[in-house]
Structures are given as structure tokens and as C-alpha cells.
Amino acid sequence: LHARYVLNLLHETRKHLKQLPNISHVSTCYSEEVTVCGDLHGQLDDLFLIFYKNGLPSPSKSYVFNGDFVDRGKQSLEILVILFTFLLIYPKEVHLNRGNHEDHMVNLRYGFFHLFFSFSQVHGKKILRMFQNVF
User: Fold this and answer.
1) Do 125 and 7 touch, CB atoms closer than 8 A?
2) Which CATH architecture best describes the domain 3-16+26-132?
3) Which residues participate in catalysis according to the annotation?
4) Over the range 93-108, which residues count as b (16 or more CB within 10 Å of their CB) and which as e?
5) pTM
6) Is 10 exposed, middle or buried (0-12, 13-18, 19+ CB in 10 A)?
7) Domain spans of the chain?
8) On the chain, which terminus has fewer CB atoms closer than 10 Å, C or N?
């Protein structure tokens, strides 16, 4: 994606998240499943496997992602683009909880910070700042 689209996605995600309470209540009934995931750590293949086995988020398929979306793996940016897009499309069915890897100091240590300069030399710092703001 062009940096402009990533920045737009981040802006809309931040706007949406600011409207939410600090604590999310997710309920289910016997006819509806909730898939709970955690610790993707930049492993896009793991996210694809989860979606393959459980289906994509939809009005009948809720997901809770318990943080640690980034760092360690090489595809953290792609994971966030996918998760933020699903969050905006299905705001009642997709829930994102921040993990300790969605922190600036942890990002510096484990690699998320460095992805942006290979992604966009011109807009890398701006995109990184916006991600930190969303986190």
C-alpha cells in the first residue's frame, strides 16, 4: 500500500478507538462463537491459518485479538493493516486489546521500529509516529 493509504487507515482506526471505552465487554450466546487469539508477533502465516480454520471476521464470527501483534516477525505491518481494516469494517465483531509489544520502547528493542524505514524512506517516521499514537 502507498503510505497515504496506511496513514488514512491509521487515522480512521485512531478515531474509532478513541470512541471506545477502556474495557471491552464481549458476550456470546450458544449460537455464536468468539475466537480469541494472541501473540501473533508479526507472523502473518499464523493469522492466515487462524482465518482459514475459523473463518474471516463477519457479523456471525467475532474475534478478540489479545495484543502482541507486532515485533519479532517480519510482517507486523501487514498484520496491523489487516486487523485495523477488519476492526473498521466489523467494529462490533472485532476487538483488539493492546499488548506489551504495542509499546514504543518494546518496538525499539524487538524490531517493529525498523520496518518503517524499509517500507517508506520518505514517510517512515510519520507512519511510525501514527502507529505509536494508535497504540
Assistant:
1) no
2) 4-Layer Sandwich (3.60)
3) 101
4) bbbbeebebbbeebbe
5) 0.84
6) buried
7) 3-16+26-132
8) N
